């Protein structure tokens, strides 16, 4: 852990150490501007809430965005999955960091330890919900997170091991629309070593989260075992994985456009959509899969999306394209696909405890 308390005032630390011409800072600022509206939008219209854990990545992001005229708001979220001593320490450090930058500071505490389900997923959902609340309260149109190249590579590798398609292999998206604001990640191509160097030059400290060393979490095992192994095989392996992720996101965006057009062709019914079986026979698996996922997202609020498996979608496609005239009903994750002689209907399933296909 590095200590923030010994650092000097903002003028002694950041100004005179780095500026907008710093190569890494300039790169991050360029990407932030692209993601927040491009050349047609002034910086005064890009007010941003920086999600800051106190770690090196989010501290670097706060440093860079503080270089613009309209300073960001530094936001910190604490969970109950670590000791109160550690969480208070981190909150105090982030508040001191915000003061050092001359930025506003906001804070939320969330409880997830006793919530049923996946702990990491619950913590992530609670964190983003809190960040959106704080963005609304502080008048920020954007939330920026410090995800960087190694984070992206870890995500891609984890999704690859799960058997993900092009969307999953695209990893972490640079931009995501939330209900009231937009989430941006302008550092996804920046390496951790560059970020650490930037913080050193800026004269700011950061804290170390001990949970990142706990190898009972899959991500940490990938970080500490698989990533170094890849780099031992090829020095620029992480950069190449990040590049592949961008290519997969481009492919996923193309499929997404086709899915959008197809989804609009289906007729709306109670709790779902339907089309003629003749029409459904002509759909490719990626588009059919995308239509099913749209039902889950729009009619089931995304719940159960991780249970939409390829084998289930393929089972439906085989039934749709078969010569059989008998009705068949297929469970795919949280939805049911009813294939009759003339129509195909996709609806949200009533939970019965049955196993998915």
State the gist of this model.
This protein is an alpha/beta fold and 357 residues long.
Walk me through this protein's architecture.
- By secondary structure, this protein is an alpha/beta fold.
- The protein folds into two domains: 10-245, 3-Layer(aba) Sandwich (Rossmann fold), CATH 3.40.50.620; 266-348, Uridine Diphospho-n-acetylenolpyruvylglucosamine Reductase, domain 3.
- The chain is 47% helix and 14% strand.
- The chain has 13 helices and eleven strands.
- The chain has helices spanning 10-13, 23-35, 56-65, 84-101, 119-137, 149-161, 166-169, 192-202, 218-233, 237-265, 277-281, 285-299, 310-321; strands at 48-51, 73-79, 104-110, 142-144, 175-177, 182-184, 267-269, 272-276, 328-332, 335-339, 343-348.
- The chain has a six-stranded mixed beta sheet with strand order 3-2-1-4-6-5, sandwiched between helices. Strands 7-8-11-10-9 form a five-stranded antiparallel beta sheet.
- Helix 6 crosses helix 9, helix 6 crosses helix 10 (237-265) and helix 12 crosses helix 13.
- Mean pLDDT is 90; it is low at 1-13.
CATH level-1 class of the largest domain: Alpha Beta
Average pLDDT, all residues: 90
**Overall number of strands:** 11
Shape verdict: elongated
| Strand and helix order | HHEHEHEHEHHEEHHHEEHHHEEE
Class computed from helices, strands and strand pairing: alpha/beta
CATH superfamily of the largest domain: HUPs
Radius of gyration: 23 Å
Main beta sheet strand tally, sense and closure: 6 strands, mixed
Query: How many domains in all?
Result: 2
Report the uncertain regions. Answer: 1-13
Strand order of the largest sheet: 3-2-1-4-6-5
What percentage of residues falls in helices of 4 or more residues?
40-55%
Strand-residue proportion = 5-15%
Gross CATH architecture of the largest domain: 3-Layer(aba) Sandwich
Number of helices: 13
At the third CATH level, what is the topology name of the largest domain?
Answer: Rossmann fold
Alpha-carbon distance between the two ends: 48 Å
């Amino acid at each position: 852990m590095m200590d923030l308390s010994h650092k000097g005032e903002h003028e002694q630390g950041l100004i005179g150490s780095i500026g907008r011409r710093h190569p890494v800072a300039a790169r991050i600022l360029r990407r932030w501007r692209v993601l927040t509206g491009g050349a047609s939008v002034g910086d005064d219209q890009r007010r941003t809430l920086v999600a800051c854990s106190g770690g090196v990545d989010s501290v670097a992001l706060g440093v860079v965005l503080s270089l613009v005229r309209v300073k960001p708001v530094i936001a910190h979220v604490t969970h109950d999955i670590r000791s109160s001593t550690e969480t208070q320490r981190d909150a105090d450090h982030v508040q001191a960091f915000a003061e050092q930058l001359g930025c506003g500071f906001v804070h939320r505490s969330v409880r997830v330890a006793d919530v049923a389900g996946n702990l990491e997923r619950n913590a992530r959902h609670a964190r983003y919900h809190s960040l959106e609340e704080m963005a609304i309260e502080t008048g920020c149109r954007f939330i920026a997170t410090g995800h960087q190249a190694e984070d992206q590579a870890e995500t891609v590798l984890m999704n690859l091991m799960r058997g993900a398609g092009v969307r999953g292999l695209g990893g972490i998206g640079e931009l995501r629309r939330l209900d009231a604001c937009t989430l941006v990640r302008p550092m996804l191509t920046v390496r951790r070593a560059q970020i650490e160097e930037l913080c050193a030059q800026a004269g700011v400290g950061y804290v170390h989260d001990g949970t990142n060393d706990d190898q009972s979490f899959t991500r940490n095992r990938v970080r500490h075992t698989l990533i170094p192994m890849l780099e031992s095989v090829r020095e620029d392996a992480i950069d190449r994985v990040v590049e592949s992720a961008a290519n997969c996101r481009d492919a996923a965006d193309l499929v997404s456009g086709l899915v959008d057009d197809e989804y609009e062709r289906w007729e709306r019914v109670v709790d779902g959509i339907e089309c003629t079986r003749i029409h459904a026979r002509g759909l490719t698996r990626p588009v059919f899969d995308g239509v099913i996922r749209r039902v889950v997202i729009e009619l089931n609020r995304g719940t159960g999306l991780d249970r939409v498996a390829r084998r289930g979608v393929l089972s439906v496609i085989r039934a749709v394209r078969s010569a059989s005239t008998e009705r068949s009903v297929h469970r795919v994750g949280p939805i049911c696909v009813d294939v009759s002689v003339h129509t195909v209907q996709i609806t949200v399933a009533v939970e019965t405890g049955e196993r998915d296909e």
